Amino acid sequence: MNIELYKKSIKCPVCQNEFKTTKVKASRTRVLKSDTDFMIYYKSENPLLYDVIVCQKCGYAALESKYNYFPKAKKNIMQDFITSKWNKRDYTGERTVDEALLCYKLALYCGQTLKFKKFELGGLCMRIAWIHRLKEQRDEEIRFIKLARDLYEDAYSNENIPYDKMDENTLTYLMGELNKRLGDYRESINWFSKTIGGTTKPSPRIEKLTREQWMQAKELYKESGGENAEVI
Ligand SMILES: [Zn+2]
What we know:
By secondary structure, this protein is mainly alpha-helical.
């Protein structure tokens, strides 16, 4: 086995299947650079490819951080809509980018079927967009950035977001950045101003990113002939 990888024991919360899945050793990850929407590039194996766990027996797939939070009341939905259609496949070994993409799409299907929070579905769509970026599939990348933007926006307005992994300023910054990437510059500028003008001060990293991308969004808005761009 690749020395950057290891096996982790998992017990499926749906069917109780015990299996081992592959992960990247944290001590072996080497970051090369990151994009302004937080996609990270690695010199080592890419942990992004292994973030989703898939039970080969019942087809339950979710991000590792959410895997054990399966709601027992939804076991019947799982059986009727996922397990009954599941052609047993094994994604527990080393993954190609294409296999990782299938795992994410499966996790998104499970999440939508089981009605997971919009914030969680947004996180899956964001990661799927990054995988399409790795594959240089621009149209699919944009399609999933748009889905992520819409889900995060819905979550921001209607859900109690657990701001432990991503604080509110990081989320409003990301909304600005995703809108900028989609060419919705006016929306982008509105979100960046929420980050800077909010009740809590953003971290120095988020403040720097916001100011840089805000400037770029204003320029792009002007270039696109946006109304009154100069006064924003
Ligand atoms: Zn299972």
